[in-house]
Specification:
Length: about 290
């Protein structure tokens, strides 16, 4: 048997075991290394460490498909309880979306304990400003810019979008974005329960939680949550959906059966779609069939 095939099979088994075993610890240490080992970027363009701001972690990696005209642009923000994670861990996501014809920027942002709330969200908004200002120069469609995040990264993108009117200095408007994609985000919890509590010290739930800051005029939302998620409860996505509906914001909520917090993210990968076959096509369809109103 081909030794290369044997090696890939071994890596594949490690990947599956890692994803399944990650369980409740996936929010801190998602087993991306195994997925990335199986991810090949041949035929794609990849630019690393593009600066979107002045700080060391204000960097992003950009994945694209060669010779594609005016693709949509997605800005992805990683999870990790605002304390861990890095853009390099999401090569599998960049590859999967790029293969579908989506220009994909995966960002780093400053983490606790070096910063605390609202710095994570401010960094996300700064990256969003970069996306708006650079989309045309990158050859992307400026009317099809999306923000996407997983877990704490989903909180960042949603809080940034619903808070844009409070940040006029960035010159951003919600209507400049074609859509928001949140995977298993914590949108409605008591910040006193955060570990450590200093992540959100000095702010009330009403000042922090996106469910309390919804206003009319936001772009469409796609929310995905894992049925077996024991880290971020599905009620967070359900609460956000209700808050958006009360303000007539288009929103879809997909509760993905038989998967947990880690598997939901892993299912976006080209090599692990089988974990939840509905996840990747739902995200891609949302991106390719949405258009900005502004």
């Amino acid at each position: 048997m081909n030794p290369k095939f044997i090696r890939l099979t071994q890596i594949s088994l490690i990947s599956l075991v890692g994803i399944a075993a990650a369980g409740a610890f996936a929010v801190v240490r998602f087993p991306a290394q195994s997925l990335n080992a199986l991810t090949f970027t041949g035929g794609l363009t990849l630019e690393r460490d593009i600066a979107y701001g002045p700080e060391e972690r204000h960097k992003l990696d950009l994945y694209g498909l060669k010779r594609l005209e005016r693709p949509p642009l997605v800005l992805f923000v990683h999870g990790g309880v605002w304390q861990h994670g890095a853009k390099e861990e999401y090569k599998f996501l960049g590859e999967a979306l790029a293969r579908a014809g989506i220009l994909t920027a995966i960002i780093n942002y400053r983490l606790f304990p070096h910063v605390s709330y609202p710095a994570y969200v401010e960094d996300t908004a700064l990256a969003m400003q970069w996306a708006v200002s650079q989309a045309a120069a990158l050859g992307a469609d400026p009317k099809r810019i999306f923000v996407m995040g997983h877990s704490s990264g989903a909180f960042n993108v949603v809080d940034a979008i619903v808070s844009l009117e409070r940040n006029p200095m960035l010159g951003l408007r919600a209507g400049q974005f074609a859509g928001v994609i949140g995977l298993a985000g914590p949108y409605d919890f008591d910040p006193a329960d955060a570990r450590p509590p200093e992540l959100f010290e000095g702010y009330t739930p009403e000042q922090i939680m996106p469910v309390h800051k919804i206003k009319p005029g936001l772009p469409p939302f796609l929310l995905l949550h894992a049925e077996l998620d024991d880290i971020i409860k599905p009620r967070d996505s359900e609460s956000l959906k209700l808050a958006l509906e009360l303000h007539n914001i288009p929103v879809q909520l997909l509760t993905v059966p038989k998967v947990n917090h880690a598997n939901l993210m892993g299912a976006v990968s080209s090599v692990a779609t089988f974990l939840a076959p509905s996840v990747k096509p739902t995200i891609i369809d949302f991106i390719l069939n949405s258009a900005s109103s502004g």
